[in-house]
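Reopening this one. Same input as before:
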Amino acid sequence: MKMPPRPCGATVLVVGIQSADLNCSCGFHDICGDQVKENSLLRFEKRVVETDKSEYLWHGVAFLVLDGGISCCVGRLAPIYDKTLDHLDGRLAQVTLLFSDSSCPEKIEYSRSNKGVCLATLVDTTIPGDRALNSLLRSIEGNYGD
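Same output, byte for byte:
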């Protein structure tokens, strides 16, 4: 069976996929990010999350999409996206690389130090007229490819 080509949109860095922090644990999984595999579909949402110090911060949260519906919280967007959360809210992305599976020692170490990292490529279109976000996504796209 021939595999479909990888998506060609901008690539987003998702961190914390091997951690139960920030509510990435549920009644079925100790660590929901363990369900993330290459080609998994994620949906990003802007959420208020309680931190360890009982403070509340906005985060870009990644949810796994299974059978057409939102499943578990599996990680969060890297802090570089904090200023563009409104534009990434509701976007869909396909996981294209798990850093823990990379042959590159630097990516494996980066994944370990960030509690699991994956790249996810946006599968919906960029936002017409949003030069700032589209420029950010294009600049990031080439920095983490395998």
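So the earlier flakiness isn't reproducible anymore. For the record, The mean pLDDT is 81.
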